[in-house]
Write a structure and sequence with these properties.
The complex is a heterodimer.
Chain A: E1 5-16, E2 19-30, E3 34-38, H1 45-52, E4 60-65, H2 74-78, E5 81-84, H3 96-105, H4 112-121, H5 135-147, E6 153-157, H6 165-180, E7 184-189, H7 192-198, E8 201-206, E9 209-215, H8 216-221, E10 224-230, H9 235-238, E11 244-250, E12 253-259, H10 263-272, E13 277-281, H11 285-291, H12 294-305
Parallel strand pairs in A: 3-7, 3-8, 5-6, 6-7
Antiparallel strand pairs in A: 1-2, 1-4, 8-9, 10-12, 10-13, 11-12
Chain B: H1 40-76, H2 80-90, H3 93-98, H4 108-135, H5 137-142, H6 144-149, H7 157-183, H8 194-220, H9 224-247, H10 257-263, H11 273-295, H12 319-326, H13 328-359, H14 362-395, H15 397-404, H16 406-411, H17 417-451, H18 455-465, H19 468-484, H20 486-506, H21 514-519, H22 521-524, H23 535-558
Helix pairs in contact in B: 1-4, 1-7, 4-7, 4-8, 4-9, 7-8, 8-9, 8-10, 8-11, 10-11, 12-17, 13-14, 13-17, 14-17, 14-18, 14-19, 14-20, 17-18, 17-19, 17-23, 19-20, 19-23
The chains are: A alpha/beta, B mainly alpha.
Chain lengths: 306, 564
């Protein structure tokens, strides 16, 4: 176990009856970084987080959290951990403020000042009973409870799925503060812009298996850059260059994708053709993600075409 | 650095098993999580804060009920002759079946015991089971415990907190009952206070066993509904075992914790050791719950969810069709419960006949007719009471569906609220008719077979069906409450059922005026076959029941839909 890893999972398996939820999942979240955890619904994100919380026992593989065993050392490890579930259920007859205090006191001293700051930042009324909160406000209760702590590791399971854009901004600000303090975050999400903005590293899973992991820059290297240019002539010649894919011309705009290592040579060739404009964009996280789901995407389009 | 993850590309890692069902080396050994009790104190505080009203209510109900009867009997039975008379009247099959007979029935304490001990014990047992579920499986099912467990909370902390608080509640109730018994002078003059202490301990012991039952069923079932149903079945099962035991040779009484409490025999033999038996059983049940909780996944019961069908039949589009599907489990459960009870009751009646036959003389022969008919009427009434519980459970589903928000999806479709509610109410209306008919017929069949009289089937079916208007009033009340007081509807409906049950068991001691008994649905129903048929109350009750339901539906059609 290396001390630089806040979370390290190797070959994790978990079945529920006949459902095989995790099939050899690998995940590493370095200390002091924000690790984005991406996967579609039902791919095993929440199961993974529940294993990390010591709520589920893994069938095979290893998982370590802050250097400890999440199942046997759960209580000790939870002193240094804050968690926000994706679907927050609260005790209907307790107020939001009471709930936050109960949660915070279970992991150490409550810091009223931090609690007040977070309540203001997320514009949450702590005197309302939980039954009167909307979904977004219930989520804010869990967020305030987690962010009011100084826990070295935050496990966030789609923490912003019920928040409006203003609250999303407040969340992003909070996560940047957490990172600036050298704390670690595991952020499960399928909001690509959020992960792209916040995450240092990304892990993409599919059907309980890790299909991609690394820094965003590294992942982009593995894929192609999309180039759009306006050329007076010679566009067809580009198609023959090594590393150029899917070339098409429409209304004078020529678009194609370039393998990362072929980019310098191709751009030199484009420059020789005297382009009137040129846009080169690295692949978005969404492109990276969808690359692993080509077949499912095809199924969606097929279903839509019927 | 970027990693294309691939098992083969990571030679430095230990090879992991390819088959998921084979555990990694060492994983099959049981590794209990450390600090299972961390956060226990905070959990106890939380448990008390969240349940302060309920804990107080159960305490007051059990202790208050006992103290009320003790005081009332103290005023009524001022002479030994009156106590002897009461003991003689109580010594009949009906009382033995319903409440059991005190060990020393001719003392004041014994009279109070006969009247109220079993009621207090059953109420306490059910209350404890429901409280365990509310603070255990219900929170886990809803995902609230997950939030707490992400903090420094051991995996047993919440359960053990609930056990601590509820064991304390049981002991406090036992203590308070003993103190009330001493204060109200239930102990005979020369006997000291031992009887009172034995009495208190017997109730506390029942509470502890119920705690063990609740804890274990909360580990077995994966839903709070399942846990409560399973727990109630066990408690009712204990009650029925005791009932058959008391009517027979007493052997089965010893198979039931209620029987153990009974056999502590306050003011009679004054035995302490059955209390030890109850504590021992509690310890075993709690240990089993602990071991299961240590091994299972959070949120899981014993059985994993199975895959269901991918398409719904067209009938689910109607509120009735959907409700029948959603209430399928309870419907099957209630049918089984009624059938089993009716068959059991039939065999009980048979044993009583044998007993009276053995007496042989002409006096017993004269008594036999009246005694048996009264017992049969009582058993039909118990079937009706079970049916009323079913009807109220089904009727309160209207409010449950509204509170959870499920109804919004249905009402968003082309469906009027009136139609929705009416169709849903077909289930309690028709269901209770069927359950009463089947229950009464089986009771008659069982009894008729022993005395070789096949006409008993129709006779007792009629006796049970006579309760249909009374059941309708209770269910109608639940619907009216749903319309006018949605937030209190479920609690008040069950309160009404509890009150009816109480009136049936201890009616006369409540000293209710005749007019009050006349308007209470179950006492207003003629006790066939012991009494003669009287159509007037039945017609009136049917009108009242339907009227209440109609008023409730009409109100629901006009008011706001209120979530919980």
């Amino acid at each position: 176990m290396t001390a630089e890893m806040a979370v390290e999972i190797q070959g994790l398996h978990k079945s529920f009856g006949r459902v095989h939820a995790l099939r050899g999942l690998d995940l590493a979240a370095p200390v002091g970084q924000v690790t984005g955890f991406l996967g579609p619904n039902g791919s095993g994100k929440t199961t993974t987080i529940r294993v990390l919380l010591g709520l589920l026992r893994s069938d095979a593989g290893t998982a370590s959290l802050l250097g400890g065993d999440p199942w046997t050392d759960a209580v000790r490890l939870h002193r240094d951990l804050a968690y926000v579930p994706g679907d927050v259920t609260l005790w209907p007859n307790l107020t939001g403020g009471e709930t936050i205090d109960i949660l915070c006191r279970l992991s150490g001293p409550l810091e009223p000042e931090r609690k007040r700051t977070m309540l203001e930042r997320f514009d949450l009324d702590p005197t309302k009973k939980a039954r009167a909160y909307s979904k977004g406000n219930r989520q804010k209760v869990a967020l305030v409870a987690a962010l009011a702590s100084r826990a070295p590791l935050l496990l966030l399971d789609e923490p912003t799925s019920g928040l409006d854009p203003i609250m999303e901004a407040a969340f992003q600000e909070s996560i940047r503060e957490v990172k600036a303090e050298g704390r670690s975050v595991l952020l499960s999400s399928h909001i690509f812009t959020e992960v792209e903005t916040l995450a240092d590293r990304v892990v993409i899973i599919r059907e309980g298996e890790t299909v991609e992991s690394g820094t965003l820059a590294d992942l982009r290297h593995l894929t192609r850059t999309q180039v759009t240019t306006v050329l007076d002539s010679g566009a067809d010649a580009l198609a023959a260059l090594p590393g150029v894919h899917d070339l098409s011309t429409e209304d004078g705009h020529t678009s194609f994708a370039v393998d990362d290592d072929a980019l310098p040579a191709v751009l030199a060739e484009v420059a020789r053709l005297k382009p009137r404009s040129l846009v080169a964009s690295p692949p978005s996280l969404e492109d990276l993600f969808l690359r692993h789901y080509d077949d499912e995407l095809a199924a969606v389009h097929h279903g839509g075409a019927r | 650095m970027s990693t294309r993850v691939d098992a083969a590309a990571r030679p430095e890692q230990p090879r992991r098993p390819d088959h998921p069902d084979r555990r990694a080396p060492g994983a099959s050994r049981h590794r209990p999580p450390a600090d299972g009790l961390a956060g226990l104190r905070a959990s106890i505080g939380f448990m008390v804060r969240r349940n302060r009203v309920r804990l107080g209510v159960w305490f007051l109900v059990v202790v208050g009920l006992f103290a009320y009867i003790a005081r009332y009997f103290g005023d009524v039975f001022t002479t030994q002759e009156s106590l002897d008379d009461f003991a003689a009247i109580s010594d009949n099959p009906g009382i033995k079946a319903l409440t059991g007979l005190a060990a020393a029935p001719d003392t004041l304490g014994g009279a109070v015991w006969t009247k109220i001990w079993m009621t207090c014990a059953v109420a306490l047992a059910l209350g404890i089971v429901f409280l365990v579920t509310r603070n255990g499986r219900a929170d886990e099912e809803l995902g609230r415990t997950e939030l707490l467990r992400s903090r420094m909370l051991g995996n047993h902390a919440r359960a053990v907190a609930a056990w601590t608080v509820l064991a304390t509640l049981s002991l406090a109730i036992g203590l308070a009952v003993a103190v009330a018994s001493i204060a109200l002078g239930l102990d005979p003059d020369d006997a000291g206070t031992t009887g009172s202490w034995v009495l208190g301990a017997s109730l506390a012991g029942v509470g502890l066993v119920a705690l063990g039952v609740g804890a274990l069923v909360g580990q077995l079932a994966s839903t709070s509904r399942g846990a409560n149903a399973l727990g109630s079945i066990v408690v009712v099962g204990f009650y029925v075992l005791r009932m058959i035991g008391d009517l027979g040779d007493g052997a089965l009484t010893w198979a039931s914790p209620f029987g153990w409490g009974q056999e502590m025999a306050p003011w009679g033999a004054n035995r302490w050791w059955p209390f030890g038996l109850m504590v021992l059983l509690t310890a075993v049940l709690l240990a089993a719950a602990w071991l299961i909780e240590e091994r299972r996944d959070h949120g899981a019961g014993l059985l994993p969810d199975r895959a269901g069908r991918s398409d719904a039949p067209a009938r689910y589009a109607s509120p009735l069709g959907l409700a029948l599907r959603l209430q399928r489990g309870p419907l099957i459960g209630w049918s089984i419960a009624i059938v089993l009870s009716a068959m059991l009751f039939g065999s009980v009646a048979e044993e009583m006949t044998d007993l009276l036959d053995d007496a042989g003389d002409s006096m017993a022969a004269i008594l036999q007719g009246a005694g048996i008919d009264e017992l049969l009427g009582l058993l039909a009434g118990m079937i009706a009471l079970l049916t009323a519980v079913f009807a109220v459970q089904s009727a309160t589903q209207l409010r449950a569906d509204e509170a959870s928000g499920i109804v919004e999806a249905q009402l968003a479709g082309a469906l009027s609220r009136t139609r929705w509610a009416l169709m849903r109410l077909v289930i309690p209306a028709v269901g209770s008719l069927v359950l009463l008919a089947v229950g009464g017929a089986l009771l008659g069949l069982g009894y008729g077979a022993t005395i070789d009289d096949s006409s008993q089937t129709m006779r007792l079916m009629g006796a049970a069906l006579a309760y249909w208007p009374a059941v309708t009033v209770v269910a109608g009340l639940a619907v009216a409450l749903f319309g006018y007081l949605p937030r209190l509807a479920i609690a008040l409906s069950w309160g009404a059922v509890g009150a009816l049950w109480m009136v049936m068991v201890i009616g006369d001691a409540l000293n209710l005026p005749d007019w009050a008994l006349a308007v209470l649905p179950f006492s207003a129903t003629p006790t066939l076959p012991a009494e003669s048929m009287d159509w007037t109350p039945l017609v009136v009750m049917t009108i009242v029941g339907v009227g209440l339901a109609w008023a409730g539906i009409a109100r629901f059609a006009r008011r706001d839909v209120a979530l919980s």
